[in-house]
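protien #1 (seq + structre)
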Amino acid sequence: MPAPIRLRELIRTIRTARTQAEEREMIQKECAAIRSSFREEDNTYRCRNVAKLLYMHMLGYPAHFGQLECLKLIASQKFTDKRIGYLGAMLLLDERQDVHLLMTNCIKNDLNHSTQYVQGLALCTLGCMGSSEMCRDLAGEVEKLLKTSNSYLRKKAALCAVHVIRKVPELMEMFLPATKNLLSEKNHGVLHTSVVLLTEMCERSPDMLSHFRKLVPQLVRILKNLIMSGYSPEHDVSGISDPFLQVRILRLLRILGKGDDDSSEAMNDILAQVATNTETSKNVGNAILYETVLTIMDIKSESGLRVLAINILGRFLLNNDKNIRYVALTSLLKTVQTDHNAVQRHRSTIVDCLKDLDVSIKRRAMELSFALVNGNNIRGMMKELLYFLDSCDPDFKADCASGIFLAAENYVRDDSVPNLIQLITNSVEMHAYTVQRLYKALLDDISQQPLVQVASWCIGEYGDLLVSGQCEEEEPIQVSEDEVLDVLEGLLVSNLSTPVTRGYSLTAIMKLSTRFSSLNRIKKVVSIYGSSIDVELQQRAVEYNALFKKYDHMRPALLERMPIMEKTATNGPSEIVQTNGETDSTILDTKHLPNITQPASQANDLLDLLGGNDVVPIIQTTVPTKPASAGGELLDLLGDLSLTGQPAPPFLLDGLTSQPLFNDIAAVIPPMTAYNKNGLIIEFTFERSNPNPNIAVITIHATNSTEADMTEFVFQAAVPKTFQLQLLSPSSNVVPAFNQGSVTQVIRVLNPQKQQLRMRIKLTYTHKGSPVQDLAEVNNFPPQSWQ
């Protein structure tokens, strides 16, 4: 047979192919020639043929028929053959194929070879694709090479030991004596691989972690020598001495210092030196600073050092490299819960990142901005976030709007709606302008429920001004009565509307029965909701139907426009705000209370059911005796009730008492045990949010029945994308032993689609000096918590 072409010629030929089909034809032709050569047992060109086969494998063509030829090359005595053979084994073989076990004896012989380069090839192959069986058989040879004085072999043996530990963790102790001496090596390659080996051992075994903590001073000295040493051409990268070794040491220090006071204190000074002395003009320096920041935030570092770390991340936000900005935002998002005040100092820079062109940076900046919102900065932050919501891509709008909603739920006072209604009522000259602006807002968006409630109230009160076009502050809009009713009826059936919002809408429609001429349509709407499954809405509709039928002559007086509301000046929180025929719970000065049994002006007292200038509080819960004077027919509105001092039904007293008609009835939701393992019990208790029933408020209670405290306790939770989750700060990070106390933490879950709640929780704590981490799925939430 003619001599096969060389690898270089094959590459040149394949590159001349103009089409994929032409390339496949060349490859198939060459593969046929290689197969023929293999069948002829041609030892002369076996190495060349396998090399060409590996190149074709890298191009994506099948090359499995060369596996046995690789084993033959490994068994050869020539170094060039062994080199291609081992390379082929690493590319074409893996532990899922039994044929790889045939090389175990060859690797063992080569590990004891007299030539260090052959030993290096065997170590690389074992460290790359060695199975657990091979690692058990050859771990002794690797351990011997780990103790040799040859630096070339020691660094390769250390990396091979990492693979052995990953495959067979119980062999870890075999390498313990040799590992202790590796850090005294001057060769940077050996130092680097020994740190990698130490890191792997500490991550896999708490006992090893405790054992190697005594090496912290030695690691600190090595790191100090690196940053204080002069220029070394062999290890210099952009003016920094061996940044790869520095990063590895910082990662190991992070593992050794986590949860340990003594180790953390020993490394505080060197971390401060690295943070202040590392050059930031090159990307190499930024990589070291980033690892330094991660180490500072993970260990029990001093408060000043943590502030320094966050300031470094703040400087990263000003970097021109978008990857560095993204890393900084991600890191700040992880630390904002523990170092909130320090992160707040960089709020303006974070907000500026909302304007970044990069989508990933914008999303991280948005998430971090919401995490920074608190009661002190909510006005400024909401202004920036609303501007972002107005100009951002559609992909961001849903998450941004939900975040703004959750922030409002947490930091906007519950009395904002009635206070705004009072402000509107008292501004008489602005009524036409206000109702027109709010009507336009309803046409654009009905997702902001508090604003929808205010708009519904205003349309019910001033709908006649809207239809007549009396607005002078801006050009009046042309709107018909039917269009206004269409909007209000739309709120009644919208999935976005809460029960409270539907109550405002139904009352607004009822009030328009005295302002609009579409009386039959309004009667029809009210009668439909008399059979609503919402008890509160049904109750109100039934009462309004009674006004249409039995007391229609009183309806104009009962539904007349609300007068100006005045705040009652008392010593306590006693503002009286009448909204939509409802009266908020207040504390009243009893010396100003009128006598409810007084027979005079009883008609006016009854009018206060749905709006009057003064609220008539109820001191007793009985209906007064019917007087003989005029106005007695008005009291018949209470139905066929006995007027002998018997209690009135609660739904009728709602209009008289200081309780709002649309009060949320908190369903009793049974608690549940979400986690019970190793003495740690996590229980969930539930309540539904009053302003928004789509929000479930879950309180976790963590107790510890063991004999030792669980310290550094961290509870984390995640939910599917259809939910929004907010985790508030815990009451403590220590769960006391013997059930002598508990840690509580509040979770708020927004579930607008009423889907079944599912949650994944992650628990991290330290128990008896050992770190513990566990994951759990919680899928058995009671239906009342999410329906």
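ok now protien #2
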Amino acid sequence: MATLADIGLAAAINILSAFAFLLAFAVLRLQPINDRVYFPKWYLKGVRSSPIHSGTFVRKFVNLDLRSYLRFLGWMPAALKMPEPELIEHAGLDSSVYLRIYLIGLKIFVPITILAFAVLVPVNWTNTTLENSKVEYSDIDKLSISNIPNRSQRFWAHLVMAYVFSFWTCYVLFKEYEIIASMRLHFLASEKRRPDQFTVLVQNVPPDPDESVSELVEHFFLVNHRDHYLTHQVVYNANKLAKLVKEKKQMQNWLDYYQLKYDRNPSKRPTTKTGFLGLCGDKVDAIEFYTSEVERLSKKAATEREKVKKDPKSVMPAAFVSFRTRWGAAVCAQTQQTRNPTLWLTKWAPEPRDVYWQNLAMPFVSLTVRRLIIAVAFFFLTFFFMIPIAFVQSLANIEGIEKAVPFLKPIIEVHIIKSFIQGFLPGIALKIFLIFLPTILMLMSKFEGFISLSALERRSASKYYLFLLVNVFLGSIVAGTAFQQLHTFMHQSANEIPKTIGVSIPMKATFFISYIMVDGWAGIAGEILRLKPLIVFHLKNFFLVKTEKDREEAMDPGSIEFGSSEPQIQLYFLLGLVYAVVTPFLLPFIIIFFGLAYAVFRHQEAMMKDTLERAKEPNLDLKAYLVNAYVHPVFKDGDEDDSFSVDEEVVYDNVLVPTKRQSRRNTPAHSRYNGSSSPSLSDAIQEL
């Protein structure tokens, strides 16, 4: 059993690990060679230049200013002092709200910890139940509810505190929701307009033998939203074209690289091999080879583009429909459009940069089947993942290791090694098993067909939290393999299941303390080091970067990994609220996590507005602003041959148009569409 001394030693090890990460960050961020890794947004904004281009050779890579090392923790006060409006402007509202989650953790658990240590710890510690029993126990158990006998009057203290803690948590959440709602309204009132504020996504447009999808969408919204409809853009299945454009971009990149190399040394023509990664195959002139590859792919892309334009099967039964006002878009997005609830389905369109274009090509009717398949697959993934986790957890403790390798018992019994194993190894073992899980869950979410990156992250996050709840929380509490647990639950009364879990919760406090220290303390401190971006940047810079554009892409600041970090926060909230009454000794470890995470993530890195915009920009041409917003990126390439046009005529007059369908022969007004396709974007811009 782990003692307070063992936990203290493990805490010291994790604190030293966290400090080592912070120290490494403080040193690495000062080196000129890492400048683009730790300050990417300043480079992308053009307010910072590379120190590598100036100074002596050594100074280009190593910071020789000794005074800067004396201020190695100067980043922390600067990060904490940044005003919230400035933070929102720099990193966005989402990042600011995300940071407030850690602040909520501190607001909730600091008062709870003070109250728990003032009331519950003395109530638990002054009892003698465990001392008079024959069971093995630790000092942590004496601080927990396990030291209270059955039917004791002392349980009233725990019951009252449970209600107090719950009330305080609900109160903090209520007040914080008010703050965040106010922040959002202020942000929406002050930010620049975005295309998604005026646009909805329409899916499952019913097929019509007489009209194209574009004509059908236009007629429908001119009839049903005559005063607010502005324009639309149908969705194309351009996945194959996107692959060709991506491949062409890669070849063009290599061509630019070798051309630049030749320009620097005209006396020698660069060569390359035609095989895998240029490592094998025939040796050829690099510039000629990549020039021919670019020309070949350009022809293939042009052919595929013509196919997409002319093939009706390339047009999906979906469209992005834009309105004159935000109010018009809101009404459409939140109302049922027809009597049949399965047709003309509308919802808010994602921001253009947030669209996951590949999934827009999925047939809408297949989404239900796909999500059913993933639900079944996720169930089995969650269930069978218990087996390796339980196996590793059984080895990652003193008894398990001594049983597996008995000859190491004399070494394991050394106090410092024993403390390390009890306080560090179980958390590390579980952390290792969870490394690849977010990637697996993201692939599953993509298979389900969600059409925005943010929706994919939310879906992945929900799966990850359920996985943590079942495997990390419940799986660790209820000891044994998955099949043993299933057998236990199936062969006992349903009334006994909460009792089984309740008995096990105090016994696992030590494990969760270890997990918080490894995953929370050292893990969060490791986040600020940006070890993965640091390694990836230097690998790309050494092997792949050929132009300044490559270097900008290599230093991509990325974003907070919401799909994995947010479920982690939920797990810590769960642990804190569960153990607040049961084992209050765990609470200080939770507080340290939230405090450290707040400092670290603060460093790293949405009728009234319509009226306001008209007052500020009375001549605003909203059509021109929205017409190209939701065109597939492969049709908006900078090269002239990548421009997209599917027709020669366009109309944006807000009138009803004639239709080829017999049911609408008497529709008034005349259309300038030729009746076969959606409007030409290039002509639309000229006409506007």
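DSSP finds 32 helices and six strands in the chain.
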